[in-house]
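Blinded run. Sample ID left blank on purpose so nobody reads anything into the name before looking at the predicted structure. Input follows.
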Amino acid sequence: MTRTGSTGGTYSATPSGLSISSSTGAITLGTSTAGTYTVTYSIAVYGGCSALSTTASVVIGTAPSATISYAGSPYCTSGGTATVTRTGSTGGTYSATPSGLSISSSTGAITLGTSTAGTYTVTYSIAAGGGCSALSTTASVVIGTAPSATISYAGSPYCTSGGTATVTRTGSTGGTYSATPSGLSISSSTGAITLGTSTAGTYTVTYSIAA
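Blinded prediction complete.
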């Protein structure tokens, strides 16, 4: 508070809600309610002089407060859209580091299919305003790479006297091999087929990678 002129007056405010010292005019912001106030400085009649009152306007803003989270993390690049859960103050913007995350600055929604796999820090920021400092809060988001693979048995058809048939796999590792119907002697880990112990027939071999 800055006062020029006569001393000895008292301070008051309307409407109620402003924590103000009547003697010094100092305002305790932490215990004041957000709003717009008129502060009046009053000097009573004294020594034949009339009373004096002068006013000033004071605006108190609400300090922003928020938290964000992405409950589904880790996500996969094939997963569609990841939505944010925000509690607290609205009006902020979303950003992410490092680059590579396709995130909406206004909603915090992440487009997983166009994002690069990795670990990101998403920041929700509210600019300073109404006398209050800026706010930023963060959440971690992990995105994994969607598996992709193809398999083939280039020598098919085979003969039961042919020894071993090997698979050609391109793409993601770590999967398992299986065959339908039963009768094919196949290694679940390598996809190799032991022809001598397999039953003649037509089979579908499946290479599977778990979620």
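Unblinding after everyone has recorded impressions. DSSP finds no helices and 17 strands in the chain.
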